[in-house]
Specification:
Length: 272
Amino acid sequence: MNKPLISVIIPTHNNSSTIEEAINSILNQTYQNLEIIIVDDNSTDNTYKIVEEIKNERIKLIKSPVDLCRFDKKLNRNINAGYLARNTGFKYVKGEYITFQDADDASLLNRIEVQYELLKKYNASHVCLDWQKFDEKYINKKLDISSYTEMLKSKELYKMSQRSKGLIPKISKALNKLIPFHLKRKRIINKLFFGSLETYPGTGNSPLFKREVIKKVQFRKLKDRIWPSFMGRGADRDFNFQVAETFKNSYTFFIPLYLWRVENQNERYKNI
């Protein structure tokens, strides 16, 4: 194959009902030079067995270490889901580029090819696309992207990363790390730890980026995140803003090639 290898990391936790469809949407991509790293994040259902039974030389199945910080008692919610599994996947990648696929979603068949071609065209370090609501009718289909022209360039995303960064993280990462998250959210003082609360634009869960990115940027525990969500978690938001700030070479293209299992359609694509 004359195109470079792309590593696709699929973290999964109890996704027995959707994992096979998620994997197939990657195996059937128009961009074929892929390795698929399935990271089982301590599933208690038969997810691991389902993946084991898929016979394809491009698939590698590994287990993630147990994450003892997954549940935050103060917030009473799971706040670290997936961050460790993704970092575990990074240890196994062989590709020149890396992307993700969530185990309960899917991708249109030309998602990775389009993402790769845009990354090369703009000589980007990091590219996000956009999502539309999951529908079975889109499985094993491609999207004609010719009418999708809207984008955000690297300077815009860098500026967004700075205005989304709180005052304390700007002054001292060490101090930001010391303050428990449930205190950061308190009225009045939360202004010190949070900038704007805008989300990272596009599909923050499935960027495509150069392998060199992970030498400087990894997914972080909630206490270490500079760009968490206000309710906790926000590992994808933190990762993408971190890349945008570090490399100053990120792009988002509003092309809905990712299929997200959500209740409502993306407002941008209600007429699809």
